[in-house]
């Protein structure tokens, strides 16, 4: 029987009046077949959850330990080498529909499907859906559905032989099959190599005709004019069982139009012009209004409604400004005619088992992003095309999104069958996501252009295809056809030349387009971020451990050390601990106990990213974006994330919050001296007296400089400092503070380890409130990076701020949200109330 991709109309993006949809989500079971299955599991049939995966089913049955804990990852490696049989039975009562389709929204990954003992087909792609016409196969009464998943590790190995070796990172040839790349492990990810029905299974019954796809393309005639006219081209595809003429009606904001499809026709476009629309703006630039677009399908002769679709749209325009200038080629995102400085973070799957990520969990994570003043989320290409829940929330909140096509850090065969699968998944997901106004960038790949030029791939490929045809031909053609209102870039990093997607520039040239900066983490020290003058940085990062509560919940080593067995399992980066140590010692002494080690590495991660982001923002408009690697984690691990694998914010999240604030004051090296750069990324003018003082570590003022500054909206100003202020007389004991209208920036002339920072006993008071606690701290000495690690008291607690620098005698009040009833003094303990000073031995 034929296999077809699932229509957008049957996905969660749209709400359908008809056809009839029946969810097959009960009475599933799973059984191990061929593979190195432990004797205790070999012949067991286990209840299964759909959507779900083998690992989570075995975990629910208490047959395996939690793969996230200790060294269990290796203990469970047999699962990915095993074939699995999923089955269910269901009662079917024919209701007279012309056709019934069995629809799999997501199969992970190499699957053979049988209904009542008859093969329906084989699937090999986790990233697309499949639909089978099963009307002739269903029978009244009891039916049996079986899906057999073949070992993904063995399948990838076999496919790699069939296709021919192509370079990739990590240990499995994930680039040979269409499975989530990080399911095989990454330098932050657990190797699960799992299998399962990871999205819903449904029976869809319908008659005469139905909406197969509804793809609205919404834009604006004049986004910068006094009023804006919204333009919507609603592209509709119809499936038919008869040749009866049908009518398609599209309606939005009180504007409606009907088009007739004559007998046999299956495609049409309904164009609407909507006067005086409210524009959709990204976070910080305006409101994010959404309009409900309704599409109905009716029989032309009887006006009987056959199908209905409802989709939310927003009216906005997207451009990339890549006009060459005297410094190279910018990469500026322009929304509705307004240039946007991208304050971004990279996104990986929020769970190694992505079926567990609910809408509520997406909301938690995106709320954390918004807390950190992030305005764009980049969905990285080694994961999945994110769900409609994710994109719906981004639409509502004004969070810009960038979606990679799912090709990462590897060369990919362009020939069939793999090439056909990649094109099919790209087409389906562009159609599915095209309506979301938050989606402004579709990106061809992650680091593959860079790898082809610089990682010796050309030698290893020996003339074989590597993916360039996707990035330069297939994907841009698809977007031109299906989503011309969304920007496209062939890769990240990429150096653009106006008018073409293909050129001879090095893809990671800092003078052109987007770049990734990884030599700092891998080989150098983070102050060297200031040596770069990039136009746009779409990846850069620094590692740190998860929060203390996550660390100790997931690793039970005794003693717990940076190199104890469980800690090493949860450190996936090559020489990760060595790089952590090498990156710390220039700034702070290496602690000798795990508690101080944890705080030092967490702090150093935060300081590294603050250094980078403040520098990049100080270069605007020369640099017009930074996307931190990474926002989130998929399991509890030492990694580059700002939010750990159990959803708890690390100090890094607070560092990003400060560095990405609408209004930033930062002190940077300029022309052999120092300058204050004030950045106003708000919609309002910012003006006042900029006061810069050089202090001793006792709080005495040694010198000062003041001048009046005015910053229009979306602008920056650079104020060079006279040597009398910026030149230290005792570098170890002095600092600069610049302040404008309550916004502060600091500059220390030496690293903390070389400074005169002292430990002092702060005056602390903590009281219970209705929602948690308030903790007031007054410091007797210069105190750097004061923080409350509240998860050590209550793993569910949150604090409103962190990493605060205070002069002697200054105070700060932390607001803690917690439902836990404890002695408030618990939040003032030395291991909870932390600072840089504690790490400097004086």
Automatic annotation (TrEMBL):
InterPro entries, sorted: Beta-gal/glucu_dom_sf, Beta-mannosidase-like_N2, Beta-mannosidase_GH2, Galactose-bd-like_sf, GH, Ig-like_fold, Ig-like_GH2
Reaction catalysis annotation: Hydrolysis of terminal, non-reducing beta-D-mannose residues in beta-D-mannosides
Pfam families documented for this protein: Glyco_hydro_2 (PF00703), Glyco_hydro_2_N2 (PF22666)
Keyword Hydrolase: yes
EC nos: 3.2.1.25
Record-annotated Glycoside hydrolase family 2 immunoglobulin-like beta-sandwich domain positions: 232-316
Keywords, sorted A to Z: Glycosidase, Hydrolase
SUPFAM superfamilies hit by this protein: (Trans)glycosidases (SSF51445), beta-Galactosidase/glucuronidase domain (SSF49303), Galactose-binding domain-like (SSF49785)
UniProt GO BP: carbohydrate metabolic process; glycoprotein catabolic process
Hydrolase is among the record's keywords: yes
Domain Beta-mannosidase-like galactose-binding, residue spans: 45-199
Family matches, as Gene3D superfamilies: Galactose-binding domain-like, Glycosidases, Immunoglobulins
Highest taxon of the lineage: Bacteria
GO molecular function terms attached to this record: beta-mannosidase activity
Family the UniProt entry places it in: Belongs to the glycosyl hydrolase 2 family.
PANTHER family for this protein: BETA-MANNOSIDASE (PTHR43730:SF1)
Name of this protein: beta-mannosidase
Native organism: Cryobacterium lactosi
């Amino acid at each position: 029987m034929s296999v077809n991709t699932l229509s957008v109309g049957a996905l969660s993006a749209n709400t359908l009046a008809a056809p009839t949809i029946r969810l097959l989500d009960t009475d599933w079971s799973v059984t191990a077949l061929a593979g190195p299955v432990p004797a205790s599991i070999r012949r067991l049939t286990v209840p299964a959850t759909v959507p779900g995966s083998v690992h989570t089913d075995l975990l629910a049955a208490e047959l395996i330990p939690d793969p996230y804990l200790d060294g269990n990852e290796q203990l469970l490696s047999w699962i990915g080498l095993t074939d699995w049989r999923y089955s269910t039975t269901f009662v079917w009562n024919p209701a007279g529909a012309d056709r019934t389709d069995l629809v799999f929204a997501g199969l992970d990954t190499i699957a053979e499907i049988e209904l009542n003992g008859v093969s329906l087909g084989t699937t090999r792609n986790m990233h697309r859906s499949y639909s089978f016409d099963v009307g002739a196969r269903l029978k009244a009464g009891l039916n049996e559905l079986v899906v057999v998943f073949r070992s993904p590790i063995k399948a990838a190995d076999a496919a790699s032989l069939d296709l021919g070796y192509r370079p990739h990172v990590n240990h499995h040839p994930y680039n040979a099959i269409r499975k989530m790349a990080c399911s095989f492990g990454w330098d932050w990810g657990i190797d699960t190599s799992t299998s399962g029905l990871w999205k819903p299974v449904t029976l869809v019954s319908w008659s005469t005709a139905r909406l197969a796809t509804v793809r609205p393309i919404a834009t604006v005639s004049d986004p910068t004019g006094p009023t804006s006219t919204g333009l919507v081209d609603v592209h509709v595809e119809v499936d038919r069982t008869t040749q009866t003429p049908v009518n398609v009606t599209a309606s939005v904001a009180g504007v409606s139009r009907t088009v007739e499809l004559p007998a046999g026709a299956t495609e049409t476009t309904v164009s609407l012009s909507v006067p005086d629309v409210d524009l959709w703006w990204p976070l910080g630039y305006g409101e994010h209004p959404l309009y409900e677009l309704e599409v109905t399908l009716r029989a032309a002769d009887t006006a009987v409604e056959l199908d209905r679709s409802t989709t939310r749209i927003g009216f906005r325009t997207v451009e990339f400004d890549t006009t060459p200038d005297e410094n190279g080629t910018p990469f500026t995102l322009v929304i509705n005619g307004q240039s946007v400085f991208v304050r971004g973070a990279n996104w990986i799957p929020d769970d190694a088992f992505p079926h567990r990520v609910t809408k509520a969990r997406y909301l938690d994570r995106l709320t954390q992003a918004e807390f950190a003043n992030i305005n764009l989320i980049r969905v990285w290409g080694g994961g999945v095309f994110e769900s409609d829940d994710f994109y719906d929330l981004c639409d509502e909140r004004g969070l810009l999104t960038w979606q990679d096509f799912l090709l990462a850090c590897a060369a990919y065969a362009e020939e069939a069958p793999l090439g056909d699968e990649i094109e099919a998944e790209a087409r389906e997901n562009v159609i599915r996501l095209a309506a979301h106004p938050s989606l402004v960038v579709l990106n061809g790949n992650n680091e593959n252009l860079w790898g082809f030029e610089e990682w010796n791939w050309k030698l290893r490929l020996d003339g074989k295809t590597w993916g360039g045809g996707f990035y330069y031909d297939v994907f841009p053609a698809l977007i031109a056809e299906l989503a011309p209102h969304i920007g496209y870039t062939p890769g990240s990093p990429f150096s653009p030349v106006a008018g073409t997607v293909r050129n001879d520039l090095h893809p990671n040239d800092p003078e052109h387009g987007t770049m990734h900066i990884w030599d700092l983490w891998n080989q150098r020290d983070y102050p060297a971020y200031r040596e770069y003058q990039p136009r746009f940085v779409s990846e850069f990062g620094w590692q740190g451990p998860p929060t203390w509560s996550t660390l100790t919940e997931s690793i039970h080593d005794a003693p717990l050390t940076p190199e104890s067995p469980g800690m090493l399992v949860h450190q996936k980066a090559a020489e990760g601990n060595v790089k952590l140590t090498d990156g710390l010692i220039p700034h702070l002494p290496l602690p000798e106990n795990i508690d101080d080690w944890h705080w030092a590495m967490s702090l150093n991660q935060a300081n590294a990213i603050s250094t980078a982001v403040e520098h990049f923002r100080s270069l605007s408009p020369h640099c017009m974006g930074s996307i931190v690697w990474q926002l989130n984690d998929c399991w509890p691990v030492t990694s580059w994330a700002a939010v750990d694998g159990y959803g708890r914010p690390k100090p890094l999240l607070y560092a990003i919050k400060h560095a990405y604030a609408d209004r930033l004051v930062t002190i940077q090296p300029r022309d052999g001296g120092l300058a204050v750069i004030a950045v106003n990324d708000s919609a309002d003018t910012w003006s006042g007296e900029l006061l810069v003082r050089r202090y001793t570590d006792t709080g005495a003022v040694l010198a000062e400089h003041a001048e009046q500054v005015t910053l229009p909206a979306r602008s920056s100003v650079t104020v060079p400092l006279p040597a009398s202020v910026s030149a230290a007389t005792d570098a170890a004991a002095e600092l600069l503070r610049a302040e404008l209208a309550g916004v502060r920036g600091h500059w220390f002339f030496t690293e903390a380890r070389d400074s005169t920072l002292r430990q002092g006993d702060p005056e602390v008071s903590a009281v219970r409130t209705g929602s948690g606690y308030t903790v007031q701290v007054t410091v007797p000495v210069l105190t750097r990076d004061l923080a409350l690690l509240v998860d050590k008291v209550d793993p569910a607690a949150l604090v409103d701020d962190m990493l605060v620098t205070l002069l002697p005698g200054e105070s700060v009040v932390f607001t803690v949200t917690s439902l836990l009833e404890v002695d408030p003094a618990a939040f003032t303990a030395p291991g909870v109330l932390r600072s840089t000073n504690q790490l400097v031995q004086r």
